[in-house]
Write a structure and sequence with these properties.
The chain has about 350 residues and is α/β, with parallel strands linked by helices. The protein is built from eleven helices and 13 strands. Strands 1, 4, 5, 6, 7, 8, 9, 10, 11, 12 and 13 form an eleven-stranded mixed beta sheet that branches. It has a two-stranded antiparallel sheet with strand order 2-3. A hairpin with a 4-residue loop joins strand 12 (about 335-340) and strand 13. The chain is globular.
Amino acid sequence: MTSIPAPLLILQAQGLVTAIGNSTGQTVASWIAQSRRSRKVRLAGFADPFTIIDCAHVCGDSVGPERLGRLLPSAVAEALDDFAAPSPHDRQPALEILVLPTWLTHEQCNALDAQFSACLADHTDWTARPRERLIVQAGTCGAWIALEHAYRAMDANLQLEHVLIASVDSACEPGVLADLASRDLIFGPGHAQGFVPGEAAACVLLKRAAHAGKIPATKFALHRPALIASPSGFRIDDGAPDASSLAQALARALDFAAMEAIHISHLESDMDGSDWRALLEANALNRVIFSVTTALPQWRPATLLGQTGIPSGLIGWILPAVLHAQGIEQVNTVLNWSVDASGQCAACVLERSPY
């Protein structure tokens, strides 16, 4: 592999709240054990119940932004628990990016933004430095969109040292769930192309590194993401979805990392078992990866957590890094991606320190 001169973002710390754990450690332990937390719910107007994978242990029966507000604080606190300024005089600037789902109103986003600020208030080493805040509303590719914003911010400000990306989303929120059911998007009897709704919160603390050679031992860095939009979107009932956009995103992500397919040790995606995603992935991977190398291990978090929306991208960065750190899996480089039914495709490479 060739180290590229452009700066990278090191995955320094993380926090998770998922259906299988209230923290990163609990979630990863449950992932290793393949613990499942699905349950059936009935919706008005539908004869058959739907399977969801929710965080009832955290959310209870809360609705709307309150539901997201119950998920977010623990993930943010965990990501910043061990953050400490190198010295009392360290005041290097930082960027905070809060990524929220598109179903929230402007006022609801502002309320969650205020709660985000409250989550940070106890972390004085963090709040003492100059900070900028960006709120992004997005679909399932939101994590990669936030990562691109972070890279642009680093390009514009050579002093920017840390980036905090926090995200929360729920397809189990009652109003969202009812809307998904009305549009026939949920997995169920006679509808194998649907998905299982999930929910989660995730937060990552990223730190600038000059290049791959500067990634500390045992740490991983995120390379610049590739974002490609399909002009026609993806129809979940399409027997042969066009894989060109996803193939372009995968190829561009490799280019941004100065890598080729043979440099990748693992794959990771938001694949949930639906045929349309399987066809899309297979066609894109055959063009970009498997024309060069053999089959690679692949993680599919959605098969255990359901479709968690925006946090799925951050979960995809956290999971391999922690599995490697705990000696569960030897990981060198991960190519991960997401596909939104709207047509947005996103991908990036996660690279381990060479030391």
